[in-house]
Design a protein that fits this description.
Elements: H1 7-20, H2 28-45, E1 48-54, H3 60-68, E2 84-89, E3 94-99, E4 102-108, H4 112-117, E5 122-127, E6 135-139, H5 149-156, E7 162-168, H6 175-181, H7 186-190, E8 193-197, H8 205-218, E9 225-228, H9 231-238, H10 246-251, H11 254-291, E10 297-302, E11 308-316, E12 320-321, H12 323-341, H13 347-365, H14 378-392, H15 399-418, E13 421-422, E14 427-430
Parallel strand pairs: 1-6, 1-7, 2-5, 7-8, 8-9
Antiparallel strand pairs: 2-6, 3-4, 3-5, 10-11, 11-14, 12-13
């Protein structure tokens, strides 16, 4: 999945809230909180759903094939008529045939033709492809605003987190497309992009740039980005042996498209994570505190001199030790000082320094001796952060730096929790 460090910890906290309140007497407030916690946990536990939509012949299935890394969806003018097709990760290839409100049927391997013969509402393809560990792909049926097909597309967009609207670069962004896209909820438009397919068929770079300028001007508030892509060239670039043709991958728009999709999906996941953390802080944790507040026993008695004596008994916690967090903060302070002392430092250099520090601590955490036994998930968070920091080095602008700072802050929170051990047993105090 596309995860930010701390995602697993947040999911565990949400699950703890649900477990702790499972037998609590029902109330309107609790029912609402539990429903929100379930929604947060499900969203953070699932991959980010990327939907491919567009008019007939816009090249959306070809684009989905490219990103899935497998030629499984039919393309071209004679392509097979299919319902919604979901492509997701699976250990072994399989095809599920589904209907709304009916048990699905599962076939071994990829069998689209057999699945379509069952006349399903949707088909799910499971592939063991690394890219699908991060995202799932929803290939929506082609639409046309001049018939009833657009209503199906609008309904199915409810199931995706981010959308890629494919428009044919040779006749880009027709009025029928604008009519349909304006009906898409604003929240989804904010996490979507416009892919200008068949960009390789435009006569020259000047014609391509002219199309892009028009689309960017007309759609500044409709899409997060407008990206041209020559899909056949991108497929050719990635299929070269012994290694992909990265120059062709860059020039045909494949690299840019992959970068934008990763950014959009990551921002969507980060938004989910922030929303869940805010609910934990402002609602879930306070509710648990209200039903699990520690009890202080108080008692009034008469002393030997006949005066009333007030006594109370409570449990006090000792200070916490956390050597690995202290070392981590020293390391982070070091790269921050380096940044302050060298204002001209390249963003990629700063990101690489962050990656190296995270890698060092990931290796240190593998021993498992410096963190609480219940925090065995923390080393995995550092490994994910290492991969994410490496990917950020290929992006441009200030956004990667802000993401890197957020990652380091979340890792600090993880270590503050996972590396804490009590110095001594709790003591009873009385007055």
């Amino acid at each position: 999945m596309i995860e930010f460090p701390g995602t697993e910890q947040v999911v565990k906290k949400l699950e703890s809230f649900l477990t702790a309140t499972e037998n609590t007497p029902s109330s309107i407030e609790l029912d609402e909180l539990r429903e929100r916690a379930i929604t947060h946990a499900q969203r953070l536990s699932n991959t980010v759903a990327i939907g491919f939509a567009g008019e007939f012949g816009a090249g959306k299935s070809s684009l989905a094939n490219m990103l899935a890394g497998a030629d499984i969806l039919p393309t071209g003018p004679q392509q097979q008529k299919l319902p919604l097709v979901i492509v997701a990760f699976a250990e072994e290839p399989e095809t599920s045939v589904g209907w709304w409100g009916k048990e699905p049927k599962v076939y071994s391997g990829v069998t689209l033709e057999k699945a379509a013969a069952d006349n399903p509402d949707f088909i799910s393809i499971g592939l063991n492809t690394p890219a699908l560990r991060d995202i799932s792909l929803f290939d929506l049926p082609g639409s046309d605003a001049l018939d009833e097909s657009y209503k199906q597309t609008l309904a199915l967009l409810d199931y995706v987190d981010c959308a890629i609207w494919c428009t044919n670069g040779t006749s880009a962004w027709r009025e029928t497309e604008r009519h349909l896209w304006r009906q898409v909820p604003k929240k989804l438009r904010e996490s979507s992009l416009l892919a200008v397919t068949h960009a390789d068929l435009l006569p020259d770079d000047e014609a391509r740039d002219r199309v892009l300028r028009r689309l960017e001007k007309e759609n500044s508030d409709m899409f997060q980005a407008v990206v041209p892509i020559g899909t056949p060239l991108a497929v050719k670039a990635m299929s070269q042996e012994p290694e992909p043709d990265f120059r062709l991958w860059e020039s045909c728009g494949g690299s840019k498209l992959a970068e934008v999709i990763l950014r959009v999906a990551s921002e969507y996941r980060q938004s989910d994570l922030l929303s869940a953390r805010n609910d934990l802080k402002d609602h879930f944790d306070p509710f648990l505190a209200s039903i699990e507040a520690p009890v202080t026993v108080e008692h009034d008695t008469s002393g030997a001199d006949g005066q009333d004596v007030h006594t109370s008994l409570s449990v006090s916690l000792p200070p916490l030790n956390n050597p690995i967090l202290e070392d981590w903060l020293v390391a982070i302070a070091g790269i921050c000082n380096e940044l302050r002392e060298n204002a001209d430092i390249e963003p990629s250099t700063f990101l690489q320094s962050c990656q190296e520090i995270v890698e060092d601590f990931a290796e240190r955490l593998d021993s498992g001796t410096e963190i609480d036994a219940s925090a065995d998930w923390v080393p995995g968070e550092f490994e994910k952060a290492t991969d994410l920091l490496m990917l950020l080095q290929f992006e441009s602008g200030d956004a990667p730096l802000r993401d890197a700072v957020g990652i380091l802050a979340q890792l600090s929170d993880n270590l503050a929790w996972a590396g804490s051990t009590v110095a001594s047993a709790p003591t009873k105090t009385g007055t």
